[in-house]
C-alpha cells in the first residue's frame, strides 16, 4: 500500500553528494526493475465529463489543451509527506498556465471524497492515500477512474521526443495497474523494511543484524534492559505485514511472492516460506520481545514511543522519517535496515521491498480533465520532481529526476544507500493494490497473531482462505504476473 499509513504509505527518499552519479539514490537509473507485469497499459482516455468549458487549444507545450483561466480541484493526502509540495506545484501551474487550484489537504480521504464520487462530482486529481484511502481496485471496478495511458504516452516536459512513460523507473507503474490498464500513478519511490536508531545502537554496542537469529539476539538483550525489541503499529496491521511478507519473499524467493499475487492454492498453506516467515515473527511475540502496548497503538503513537527509545526496531516504509520529524530527537540518527534473513533464504540480506507508493488518480468524471492530465504530466518533470524532493524529503519515480543540490535527511538517505546495495534484488507485492478485500483479511489475521489470539498455523489457514475466496472472483483472472 505504498502510502497506506496515515502518514505516508505506499510506500522513499533523495539526498547526496552527486545525485546523478548515485542514481539509485534518486530512484533513478540504478534502481532495478521490480518484476514487470505481463500485462501492459493500453487504451486511452476514459468516459470523463468535460463539457467543453475546460478545453483550450492544444499545442506542443500543452498537449491536452489545458485552458487558461479554468480551475483545478486538487485533493492531497496530508500525511508523512505533508502537502506543501502540492501547493508549490499549484503555484507553478498557476504562474505558467494561468490555471488556479482549489486545494484540499486532508487525511480523511474516504470521508471527504466518497460522497463526491457517489454524487458524480469528484475532484480533478487526487492523492488517494493513507489509512482512509478509497481503494483503487474498488474505484476501478466502479468505472470511476481515468485510464492514464494518454498521459503516459504524451511527450515528456523535459524531452518532448520521449514519452512520459519512458522517463520512469522500470516497474514503478505496476502497482497502479488494474486489468492491464494504469489507472493510478504511484508517484513516490518507496522502500519498506525495519528502522532503528543509530545512536541507540552505538550506545549499546549492537551491530546491524543480517540474520533473524542476530535480530532476536538484539531483541533479547534489549528486553533484559527493559527496552522493547520490536514495535509495530498495532491498530494498522499493514505494518507488521512488512516483516511477515518480506520474510516470505526473501525466504522463498520471487516465486513465493508471486504465488500470493497470483492467488495460488498453495500461496500460504503448503508454502514452506510462508510457514517459516510467520513462525519467525511469532517467535518475537512468544518470547516477549514486542514493545509493551504496541498492539493497541496507532502508527504515530507506536512510532513516537520508538523515537523515545522504548523499542529498538520498528517496521515501516520510507515515509517514516517525514512523519516523525517533530517527534524524533535531533541526535536519534534514524537508519533503515533490510529485513534480516532466515537460514536458507533464497534472496540475500541486501534484498529489499522497493517500488512506488502514494497513488495519484484522475477520476473519470473530473470536470477539468485537460488540466488534470497536464498537472500529472508536469508532476513527472524534473522541475516538479525536485520541488517534491525539497518539500517532502523523498524521491519520485522519475529517473534522474531530482536536482543534485537536494539533500536528504539521514533516514531517507539510508534508504538510498540500501537501494544501491540491493542492486537487482528488489521485490514488490501487488495483491494489496489488486485485491484490497484480501489484503484486509490478511491484515486481520496478522492482528490476531500479534495479539496471541491465534497461532501461526491458523494464520496460514486464514490467509489461504482469503486467497481462495479472491480466486473465485472472475475479475481476478485479469491480473497476473509471470
What features would you describe in this structure?
This protein has 17 helices and eleven strands. It has 482 residues and is of the alpha/beta class. Strands 1, 2, 3, 6, 7, 8, 9, 10 and 11 form a nine-stranded mixed β-sheet that branches. The chain has a two-stranded antiparallel ribbon with strand order 4-5. Strand 4 and strand 5 form a beta hairpin. The longest helix is centred in the last third of the chain and has 16 residues. It starts with 70 loop residues before the first strand and ends in an 11-residue tail after the last helix. The N terminus is likely disordered.
Summarize the structure.
The chain is of the alpha/beta class. 36% of the residues lie in helices and 13% in strands. It contains 17 helices and 11 strands.
Number of beta-strand segments: 11
Largest sheet: 9 strands, mixed
SSE sequence, one letter per element? EHEHEHHEEEHHEHHHHEHEEHHHEHHH
How much of the sequence lies in strands comes to: 5-15%
Helix amount, in percent?
25-40%
Alpha carbon gap, first and last residue: 21 Å
Low-confidence segments: 1-51
Class computed from helices, strands and strand pairing: alpha/beta
Radius of gyration: 22 Å
Q: Overall 3D geometry?
A: globular
Mean pLDDT: 89
Compute the number of helices. Answer: 17
List the helices and strands and how they pair.
Elements: E1 71-77, H1 84-97, E2 100-106, H2 109-118, E3 125-127, H3 136-141, H4 149-152, E4 177-178, E5 181-182, E6 185-197, H5 198-204, H6 212-224, E7 228-231, H7 240-252, H8 254-261, H9 272-286, H10 299-307, E8 311-317, H11 320-323, E9 334-337, E10 352-361, H12 369-379, H13 382-392, H14 410-422, E11 426-427, H15 431-434, H16 436-450, H17 456-471
Parallel strand pairs: 1-2, 1-3, 7-8, 10-11
Antiparallel strand pairs: 3-10, 4-5, 6-8, 6-9, 6-10
Helix pairs in contact: 1-13, 7-8, 7-9, 9-17, 16-17
